[in-house]
Amino acid sequence: MATMMMMKPAQLAQRGAFGRAAAPAAGGRGLSVRANAAPKLVQKAEYIWTDGQEGEPHKGLLFNELRSKTKTFAKENGLDASEYPDWSYDGSSTNQAEGDNSDCIIRPVRVVPDPIRGAPHVLVMCEVFGPDGQPHPSNTRAKLREQLTPKALEQDCWFGFEQEYTMLARSGRPYGWPENGFPAPQGPYYCAVGSESVYGRPLVEAHLEACMAAGINISGCNAEVMPGQWEFQVGPSGPLDVGDEVHLARYLLHRLGEDFGIVVTFEPKPMVDWNGAGAHTNFSTKDMRQPGGMDAILASIEKLSKTHVEHISQYGLNNDQRLTGKFETSDIDTFKFGIADRGSSIRIPLPVQLKGYGYLEDRRPSANVDPYNVARLLIKSTINM
Ligand code: ADP
Ligand code: MN
Ligand code: MN
Ligand code: MN
Ligand code: MN
Q: pTM score, two decimals?
């Protein structure tokens, strides 16, 4: 547009509404038109994927960060992922490839409106594939797809993901905390209102608004026990949807944090002696949701008691710092279940106990857990084993 501003009105008149050279008038004499004029670009698509950042790569223990880059289109594609082409990126910069054969492929799997750029722009959640066309070892969504057996699909599994997170100032201190020293001890902050207890609400509100505009099934949000710590919930949704939407919601939180000058971390234990950040996962099958479903809930808990070690090994990096048996957690080495017990590994919420059916809450996953891994393990342990 800058060049357009500098043009005289007479020059402008020769151009189309958007500054493109106008087509020569029929029979016009020798007007030169640039061949292969660049197409008018109308849509920005933010391709988002998970990297292979940390932990023990390829063993499911990794902790993924989100990465993204923008692709422009000359036509407005819709919300169907099949309208968006595969793309590639340099996997050697994301801990997913060696330098000598570094291209990884991103394949769109879920498209939502981009609430930050506005229509017609979109966010495009992708799966990662290697140069051989096979799912990349870090592609946990593909591993989840493998667990969606007829038996699992028949159970129409629902997941409600409670994503806790901590806001940090650029200094690395929790947002709103004094640079030296500490706020008053925890107690007043959970679900609080008022400037003395609540730090960072403008970002929380912007994030809620953005998730709703993007069509993410965000069910709510609340201030947490540690000041500067917050939670939002996604679900109940199916296994792939909940994972896609948790990643998209995390992306929006990081992205909006840029505008607010707030760093968002999903570290499980940012501050010792304060509550950590988890990702309680509420889970139900068709059998659990029917009257009398308590039997199915208890049967699943019995199965989960036998796979505790496998789940813990993939329930998030540094989760051992959080699951200490204190601060409303269970001890990492002990499987414990209870009704309305916030010190348990698996909790049956009180309303579920009273009704006799509903869902269970797995309180073990840490805030930085890969949601596809949690869904995969819960389905594997309770349905496919
Ligand atoms: P808490 O009391 O542990 O803080 P929240 O209200 O934060 O619980 O979160 C509960 C989550 O459980 C929500 O995301 C909600 O959508 C989800 N949920 C509700 N019913 C079911 C169900 N039948 N199956 C799975 N998830 C469910
Ligand atoms: Mn480049
Ligand atoms: Mn909650
Ligand atoms: Mn919480
Ligand atoms: Mn919970």
A: 0.90
